[in-house]
Amino acid sequence: MLYRKILLISSIVACAFALDVPENKIVDTKWLKENIDDRNLVLVDLRDDKGGAFIPGAIDWHVDDFREYRFDIKGFVASPIQFERLIQQSGITDDKTIVFYSEGNKSATDYIGTTSAVYVSEVYGLKNTAILNGGYAAWIKDGGKTAPNAKKPAKSEFKITEVNSDLVATVYDIDNAVVTGDWILMDGRSDSHFKGETAHSNAAKNGHIRDAHSVFIGKFVEKKDGIFYMKTDKSSVVNLINSAGGDVTKPTIWYCNAGFFATGGWFMSKYTAGTENVTVYDGSMFEYSRLPKREVLKSEPEVAPAQ
């Protein structure tokens, strides 16, 4: 009981210092300019190519810092030890608000590094997070200043005190969803991967899980002036999911090839569409397609109507 009280007090203290971010956890460049000098802000650069310039004060991460290999499969959520060490080396403490940013103009899927970072952070109890909409490209377009180097913070004493394992679905959760229908299964891969027309080289079989519905995560963004912005209109995101056969009012499991792209669906379902119970299948089709007694289906080819 005493331990629970300590955790509760710690959470209250952390929230007291954290910056206010929108409920959908998506901030714009105006918000960042207003808060960039706040001592409780931590900016994390997740771009593949930094190009010798950063948003001032940003620290440098790569997606491999918080994802790991298991056997020969890449993309699983990092171990507690790996993630705790990353947070310590980044100088992050519980009272900080972490804002992640990507390239913003690379492709419709480059925001996935940021949603994955938010997801893994939440798995290990860091909930004061947000994403810069439009990423670095939006910052530059809107006149933001840059710095030649990333920040090198002093090491923190951060310790993981909880693991939210209910955010991480396993193959047995998929089995339960297929058998009972109590969970909606959403596939965040491209249409060709879902239909089984093509497959990732690490997948053993082409196709999708039985009863799954397809929404390519690139559809959750809109392109404007060469920059990809995450959709913030709730009705648009709800319609995108529901029109594909999903249901934002029901418990949902997102999957993809490795559990990486699926975090985009998880993020948009939870924070924009308002789905209360949503999780990610860690390992996704890389794991599922290799299991000999799990069914992987291909979509029937579309037949052109008779003339």
Number of strands: 16
Named at the architecture level, the CATH assignment of the largest domain is 3-Layer(aba) Sandwich
Strand order of the largest sheet: 1-7-6-2-3
CATH topology of the largest domain: Oxidized Rhodanese, domain 1
Structural class: alpha/beta
Which blocks of ≥5 consecutive residues have pLDDT under 50?
1-16
- What is the C-level CATH assignment of the largest domain? Alpha Beta
| Alpha carbon gap, first and last residue | 73 Å
Mean pLDDT: 91
How is the main sheet built?
5 strands, parallel
If helices are DSSP runs of H or I spanning 4 or more residues, what is the number of helices?
A: 10
Provide a compact summary of the structure:
Helix 8 packs across helix 9. The model is unreliable at 1-16 (pLDDT under 50).
Structural overview:
- The protein has helices at about 1-15, 30-35, 80-90, 110-125, 135-140, 170-180, 190-195, 235-240, 260-275, 285-290; strands at about 25, 40-45, 60, 65-70, 75, 95-100, 130, 170, 185, 210, 215, 220-225, 225-230, 250-255, 280, 295.
- With about 300 residues, it is α/β, with parallel strands linked by helices.
- It has 2 domains: about 15-140, 3-Layer(aba) Sandwich (Oxidized Rhodanese, domain 1), CATH 3.40.250; about 165-295, 3-Layer(aba) Sandwich (Oxidized Rhodanese, domain 1).
- Strands 1-7-6-2-3 form a 5-stranded parallel β-sheet.
- It starts with a helix and ends in a 10-residue tail after the last strand.
